[in-house]
Automatic annotation (TrEMBL):
Keywords: Dipeptidase, Hydrolase, Protease, Serine protease. Belongs to the peptidase S51 family. Its EC number is 3.4.13.21. InterPro entries: Class_I_gatase-like, Peptidase_S51. Gene3D superfamilies: 3.40.50.880. This is Dipeptidase E. It holds the Pfam family Peptidase_S51. It comes from the Bacteria. GO terms for molecular function: dipeptidase activity; serine-type peptidase activity. GO terms for biological process: proteolysis.
Length: 223
């Protein structure tokens, strides 16, 4: 897949331009499916009002409200109960998947349970736009600080589509989010390379090539 891994959504012109480049056509000519599933597993996010805000494009994290040709909802928890013929063609035909934040292990669990994780390698032209946990799920590990929920197996691995980890919502000291000091403490428990990034930053990945797109602040931590 083509990946645009964001901390806070498509928050500035640079990230939006990177998205259009990945799509290869204007946003207004592109179809989207939004995936709210991760929100339900996080104690401070959903279900309820914030899930509706994301789906309706009223969340304050620009993703669903960018002016897409069409937008639908792909709820991963529902997929195991319906035939693949009902949803796999829809995913294959869609230009972009907009994946909400929330609890990363809950999202990962339902990606695996639904079959979406197995489908990803065949979606070579699809763009994945992650928001916070929707980005972190593509990494090999998230660290104990970002785990609120665990699957019945206790497995805390994520998908490992990329080979680096992400600490989102980097913020200046005293501001809401994760301080650089907290990010450095987090990375001490990560076994591989990692990035800490604020909500004005995204990571673009195409065919294994990694590019940081930012109008804000970020830091790379080598392995």
């Amino acid at each position: 897949m083509k990946l645009l891994l964001t901390s806070g959504g498509v928050t500035n012109t640079s990230i939006r331009d990177a998205l259009v480049d990945l799509l290869g056509k204007p946003i207004a000519d592109s179809s989207a499916l939004c995936i709210p599933t991760g929100m339900y597993g996080h104690p401070s996010v959903g279900p309820g009002t914030r899930a509706w805000q994301f789906i309706s494009g009223n969340s304050g994290n620009p993703m669903v409200d960018l002016g897409w040709k069409s937008v639908g909802v792909l709820e991963l928890t529902a997929l195991p109960s319906i035939d693949e013929e009902r949803w796999v063609p829809l995913v294959r035909e869609t230009d972009v998947l907009l994946v909400a934040g929330g609890d990363v292990l809950y999202l990962c669990y339902w990606m695996r349970q639904s079959g979406l994780a197995d489908l990803l390698p065949s979606l070579s032209e699809t763009v994945w736009v992650g928001l916070s946990a929707g980005s972190m799920v593509m990494t090999p590990e998230v660290g104990e600080d970002f785990i609120q929920w665990r699957p019945p197996t206790g497995d805390d691995s994520t998908l490992g589509i990329v080979d680096f980890s992400i600490c989102p919502h980097l913020a200046q000291d005293g501001m809401p989010g994760n301080s650089m000091a907290e990010a450095e403490q987090w990375v001490a428990g990560i076994s591989g390379p990692a990035y800490a990034m604020d909500d004005e930053t995204a990571i673009k990945v195409v065919d294994g090539t990694v590019e940081v797109v930012s109008e804000g602040h970020w830091k790379h931590f080598p392995a």
